[in-house]
């Protein structure tokens, strides 16, 4: 194990599901790389793998929706993290609605926001989508623990190369 592995092994970020729609195609995936990246104006960045179908759809999308799941929504995490949209229509298996700009908002998220894509930043094998939040919501007074990386370690990525 390298020194960087030692550092990374200590992290346990909240996982989110990112959804996109463009050119009549919907896509969504489980994301472990995301963060607020600016205070004023508020900006948030989600990093999408270049081999992921969601990346291919998101690169043409004007808006993305970012969803935080509760730990008890592991089935949703498995669907969006362990299955590829190249083979499965994930949105037939979950409740969703339209948000700002036609964004796809999942109904079982604890909290969510829709952000306008203001920049796409290359970063190794992922691309960062910098978002300007324009709509948001969530469950009131929820104290459900969030889904974290440690809760999802056994989900095998559903990339099209699997």
UniProtKB/TrEMBL annotation:
Region spans: Disordered: 142-162
UniProt entry tagged with the keyword Glycoprotein: no
Pfam families: Flavin_Reduct (PF01613)
Biased composition (Basic and acidic residues): 150-162
Ranges for domain Flavin reductase like: 8-156
Superkingdom, taxonomy of origin: Bacteria
UniProt keyword terms in alphabetical order: Oxidoreductase
Protein name (Swiss-Prot/TrEMBL): Flavin oxidoreductase
């Amino acid at each position: 194990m390298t020194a960087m592995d030692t550092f990374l092994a200590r992290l346990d970020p909240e996982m989110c599901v990112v959804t996109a729609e463009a050119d009549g195609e919907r896509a969504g995936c489980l994301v472990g790389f995301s963060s607020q990246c600016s205070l004023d104006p508020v900006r948030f960045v989600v990093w999408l793998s270049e081999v992921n179908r969601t990346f291919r759809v998101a690169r043409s999308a004007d808006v993305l929706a970012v969803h935080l799941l509760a730990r008890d929504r592991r089935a949703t995490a498995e669907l969006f993290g362990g299955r590829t949209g190249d083979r499965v229509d994930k949105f037939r298996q979950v409740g969703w609605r339209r948000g700002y700009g036609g964004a796809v908002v999942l109904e079982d998220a604890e909290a969510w926001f829709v952000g306008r894509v203001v920049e796409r930043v290359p970063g190794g094998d992922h691309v960062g989508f910098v978002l300007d939040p324009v709509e948001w919501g969530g469950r009131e007074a929820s104290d459900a623990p969030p889904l974290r990386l440690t809760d999802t370690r056994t989900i095998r990525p559903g990339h099209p190369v699997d």
